[in-house]
Fold:
Amino acid sequence: MKELQLKYGCNPNQKPSRIFVEEGELPITVLNGRPGYINFLDALNSWQLVAELKTATGLPAAASFKHVSPAGAAVGLPLNETLSHIYFVDDIPVPLSPIACAYARARGADRMSSYGDFIALSDTCDLATALIIKREVSDGVIAPDYTDEALEILREKRKGTYNVIQMDTTYRPAPIERKQCYGITFEQGRNEVCLSDPALFQNIPTQNKHFPQEALRDLMIALITLKYTQSNSVCYVKDGQAIGIGAGQQSRIHCTRLAGSKADIWWLRQHPQVMNLPFVPGIRRADRDNTIDIYISDDYMDVLQDGEWQKFFTCQPEPLTREQKREWIAQNTDVSLGSDAFFPFGDNVERAHKSGVQYIAQAGGSVRDDHVIETCDKYGIAMAFTGIRLFHH
Structure:
C-alpha cells in the first residue's frame, strides 16, 4: 500500500488528507481503528524515539506521546513497590514484562499530560502491556508486533475503535526529508546523529568530571527524548525514565522550570502522605489523577475544603505544607538533565539543582558558558558539553 486516505488533517476542516510514500510501500499496517493525521504524527515520531532508545541502551523502551511531543519515555527496568503503586499497576494480574514496565514508567511520569496519549513500544506488545493500556484513556499504540491475546484486548478497547498500528522494523527512510509550509517546500538531511556515542560526554568543563554508568544511560535517554520533542526543550531523567519534560517553550529557563516542576510532582507523588490519600471507592482514574495533582499544588484547598473533599475522599486529608514539600523534594538526588541547546545563563542550573540534578548534558557554546560552569561548580554538578544541538520542529 502506497497511500492511506485519512478522515481529515489536523482539524476537521482540513480536507482532503492522506499519508503516502513516493516509492515503495507504507511501512505501517493498521490492525484496528482508523488513525488520524495527528495520530500518525505521534505514532511515527514516537516510534523513532523508542527504536533509538532500544538501540542505545539494549533495553525495551516505551513512549507516551501527546501533540507531537513525549509526555514520558522510559526503558524497561523493573518497578519497585513505590513506583508500582503510584503508576497504579500493582494490581495487574500477571507479572510485568520489561516492555510493560517501560510503558508503566512512560505513562506514569506525567499522568496529566499522558491522558489521551499515543503509545509507542519498541518490542512486541504482550498481555501485561495490553492490560495496562486497556484501562487508560489513550488514542492508540504502535509496536513491531502484538501477541494474539494482547491484540484481542486492544481490539475491544473504545468499543472496538482503538487505533492499533504495526510497524515494519526493516523500514529505513530516505536520507533527505521534506515538508511544506505555506506552499513552500523545505528540504534537509534527516537528523541521524548518534546519541549513544561515549565521545559525546568527554568534554567536561566542570570540576566534577565523574559520570557513573547509570548517569550516562540517563543522559542518553534525555538527549534521545529531546531529539523528538518540540523545541525549546529540557528533559529530567532518573533511573531510566523521563520524570519531567519541558517542551515547546520560547525561553530556555521556562523549559527548565516547566520540566523541573513536573519532576517535583513526580517525586511528591511518592510522599507517604500522597500515597495514602483515602480515595472514595470507585473514583474514576482521571478524577483521581487530577485530585492528586491539585492536592500537591498550592491550590490544594480546591479539593480539601468542606463540600469538595467529600467528592474524592472518605475523610478529609491534612494538606502537605510548603515546608513538607520542600523537605521531601530535597531528598530527590542523582537526577540527570539534558537540554536540546546550550544554557544561556546559570539560572537554568540554579533551577535544575532545586530538583536534584547532579548530571547535565548540553550543547555548550553560550557567551556565558563561564557563568554556567561556575554555577555547576557551586553545587558540585558534573556537566558535559556535547557540541550537538537537537532542535526538532
In short: The longest helix spans residues 37-57. The mean pLDDT is 97. The chain is about 35% helix and 20% strand.
